[in-house]
Specification:
By secondary structure, the chain is α+β, with helices and mostly antiparallel strands. It contains seven helices and 14 strands. The strands form two sheets. The chain has a seven-stranded antiparallel β-sheet with strand order 2-1-5-6-7-4-3. A seven-stranded antiparallel β-sheet has the order 10-14-13-12-8-9-11, with no helix packed on it.
């Protein structure tokens, strides 16, 4: 795998993950892959707290490749982060890419009129992978129980694909992880995050589930658990869709307001 493979896979992928290390341990969020001169993504400012924790390095993962034979991979390297509160940079080619891949964005900002009305969805944190140090192939994720395992290795975020027979273990319990490549995780007690995500066909419901704790050998000692794998998320009903839209709007507006306070506006 090389940088050209990364560019091709990232441009064609419909979903991916951004993974990084924070002072509190590994972190990850699902993203819509975008491409300009480098692989990039545009996080809505509802994710401002996550953006604030981004260091100068991160991993970009392809989770849903273009076509059944497309590669799934992870690239690690140096990132840049720019706050685009007015959506001026995002409002060029990037928004056009996103509306093709992400139906909720098509509804919110698929036209000039919609972009004015939903200005809070245009405000973004633009994260670009400006220098790639390593590109690795990852096993394909073929079922809802498959997830990424994120942990620290040589001061970088190490990403592997794992699965488990049962993800119901809560805090204080253990879950045995199985690497999808058949390798050995060789956990040494370091902090670890397992994250999976599934979406309804319209992507309105795009839900993340996580397990965090410490990894010993192949065993994750769970300290916190949120959500669970869902092999077939159903689309929101009408009232659920309206409620979700309002919640997203409030969270994005709160992020915009926080950034504007920092800028003294």
């Amino acid at each position: 795998m090389n940088v050209n493979d990364l560019a091709t896979a990232w441009r064609g992928a419909s979903t991916g993950e951004l993974c990084w290390l924070t002072a509190d341990g590994p972190a990850a969020v699902p993203v819509v892959p975008l491409m300009v001169d480098q692989p990039c993504l545009a996080l809505p400012l509802a994710h401002l707290s996550a953006v604030d924790s981004l260091p100068g390095r991160a991993a970009f993962c392809v989770s849903a490749p273009a076509g059944p034979d497309g590669p799934t991979l992870v690239a690690t390297g140096t990132i840049s982060v720019r706050l685009d509160v007015r959506g001026e940079e995002f409002g060029g080619d990037l928004v056009e890419q996103e509306v093709l891949k992400h139906p909720p964005s098509r509804l919110r900002v698929g036209s000039l009129m919609a972009r004015k009305e939903n200005w809070w969805w245009m405000a973004r944190a633009l994260v670009s992978l400006v220098e790639v140090d390593e590109v690795r192939a990852l096993p394909a994720r073929t079922r809802a129980q498959d997830a990424v395992l994120v942990r620290e290795e040589a001061s970088d975020a190490r990403v592997d694909v794992v699965t488990a027979e049962d993800w119901s273990a809560g805090p204080g319990r253990e879950v045995e992880l199985w690497p999808r490549d058949g390798g050995d995780l060789a956990g040494d007690g370091g902090r670890a995050l397992v994250m999976g995500h599934q979406a309804s066909p319209d992507l309105e419901r795009w839900e993340r589930w996580t397990r965090t704790g410490t990894l010993w050998g192949q065993t994750l000692r769970v300290e916190a658990a949120d959500g669970a794998p869902d092999p077939d998320p159903r689309p929101y009903r009408l009232l659920e869709r309206l409620r979700n839209h309002r919640e997203v709007e409030r969270a994005c507006k709160a992020g915009v307001a926080a950034v504007e306070r920092r800028l003294g506006r």
